[in-house]
């Protein structure tokens, strides 16, 4: 049995808790058992790498599939981001993947949380597991060549785009920002170059112009999980590496990480561009706008920062010129004039430190004050 003894690599959140009970057949890799069991009958050792809640849904699918009597694999270990301060109190919490694994009774000492996947102590313990296949789904760390050489069958990534389109950290968000009508999910072998490995399989999906990034992420990773289960037999028998198709690098587009500074809306842009940004940045970092509140009774003005939660493009025939800065309210929506004689309907907003409210509730709270858009 290999002893994973490096305490710094164990899930630090659980150093003072007893390890949950777990079937020894799933957690212990006995040398004598390996000798007695024909290689073809032994379950393959699969290691899962992921961090956010969408990754936890993929892990759930893999754990369920691995528990079937005729399963070809077992989840031998999990690699995820270290615990971090995620809530408002900055309490240090395990990643959603780590928490889900522990809730399922997965051994805490088989959940690795290296700050970087290149740490020598981590690579040593990871290698000692003798993993045959790694599956990544929004893990969030770069995998070095030393890591990629360890699993005998390679590393396969579930990537929520139709590769080679939208390689990078934010494929779903950048696709929505571009207003695409079709996207999808790809299974691809991981190579050192970013999201550039051979594609095993992909599945396309048509999307409407209202879906937001969190919902689309969930859908694509759910489809990706099913696609992975379909392809695992071919990955295990080696035929997937033969049939996998090289990507056409000349058609590659990039999906760089989103920054908080990108969240501001500029109403000089067209309404469709702003609406797509609202959908793309939903969840994090959100989209923000500056509005001027005018009290005509007291002749006072104040600047208001709004988070725009839900929007759509206004299709009325009475669109004001973008030079007209007045924000109006019609049929439950705030109407803001934008560039190229377009207008944006805002259906839900959020004030700093407040709950999300619909546009009608926000408008009623103004008590007759007027609104004007502010230019960035």
Overall body shape: elongated
Order of helices and strands: HHEHEEEHEHEHEHEEHHHEEEEEEHE
| Proportion of residues in extended strands | 25-35%
Class by alpha and beta content: alpha+beta
Low-confidence stretches: 1-37
Strand arrangement within the widest β-sheet reads 5-2-1-6-7-8-9
Give a written overview of the molecule:
This protein has 376 residues and is an alpha+beta fold. Helix content is 26%, strand content 26%. It is built from 11 helices and 16 strands. It has helices spanning 24-27, 31-36, 53-66, 96-103, 120-128, 145-148, 171-177, 213-236, 239-243, 271-280, 359-365, and strands spanning 44-50, 73-79, 84-85, 92-93, 111-112, 133-137, 155-159, 182-189, 199-206, 287-295, 300-313, 326-330, 333-338, 342-350, 356-358, 370-373. Strands 5-2-1-6-7-8-9 form a 7-stranded mixed β-sheet. Strands 10-11-14-13-12-16 form a 6-stranded antiparallel beta barrel. A two-stranded antiparallel sheet has the order 3-4. Strand 13 (333-338) and strand 14 form a beta hairpin. The longest helix has 24 residues, at 213-236. It is elongated, with a radius of gyration of 25 Å. The N and C termini lie far apart (62 Å). 38% of the residues are buried.
């Amino acid at each position: 049995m290999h002893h994973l003894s490096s305490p710094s690599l164990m899930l630090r959140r659980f150093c003072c808790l007893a390890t949950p009970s777990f079937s020894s057949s799933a957690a212990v890799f006995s040398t004598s058992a390996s000798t007695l069991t024909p290689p073809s009958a032994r379950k393959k050792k699969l290691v899962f790498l992921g961090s956010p809640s969408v990754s936890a849904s993929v892990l759930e699918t893999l754990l369920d599939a691995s528990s079937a009597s005729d399963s070809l694999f077992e989840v031998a270990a999990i690699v995820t981001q270290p615990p971090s301060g995620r809530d408002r109190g900055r309490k240090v919490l395990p990643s959603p993947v780590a928490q889900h694994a522990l809730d399922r009774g997965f051994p805490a000492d088989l959940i690795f949380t290296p700050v970087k996947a290149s740490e020598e102590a981590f690579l040593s313990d990871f290698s000692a597991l003798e993993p045959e296949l790694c599956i990544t789904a929004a893990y969030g760390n770069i995998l070095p060549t030393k890591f990629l050489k360890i699993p005998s069958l390679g590393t396969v990534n579930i990537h929520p785009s139709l590769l080679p389109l939208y390689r990078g950290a934010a494929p779903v968000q950048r696709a929505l920002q571009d207003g695409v009508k079709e996207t999808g999910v790809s299974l691809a072998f991981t190579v050192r170059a970013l999201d550039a490995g051979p594609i095993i399989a992909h599945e396309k999906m048509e999307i409407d112009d209202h879906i937001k990034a969190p919902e689309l992420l969930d859908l694509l990773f759910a489809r990706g999980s099913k696609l992975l289960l379909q392809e695992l037999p071919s990955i295990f028998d080696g035929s997937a590496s033969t049939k996998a198709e090289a990507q056409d690098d000349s058609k590659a587009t990039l999906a760089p990480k989103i920054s908080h500074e990108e969240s501001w809306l500029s109403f000089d842009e067209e309404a469709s561009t702003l609406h797509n940004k609202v959908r793309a940045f939903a969840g994090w970092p959100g989209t923000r706008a500056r509005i001027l509140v005018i009290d005509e009774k007291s002749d006072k003005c104040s600047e208001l920062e709004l988070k725009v939660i839900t929007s759509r493009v206004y299709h009325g025939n009475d669109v004001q010129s973008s030079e007209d800065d007045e924000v109006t309210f019609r049929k439950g929506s705030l109407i803001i004039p934008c560039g190229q004689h377009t207008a944006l309907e805002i259906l839900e907003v959020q004030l700093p430190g407040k709950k999300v409210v619909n546009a009608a509730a926000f408008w009623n709270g103004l008590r007759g004050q007027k609104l004007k858009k502010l230019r960035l």
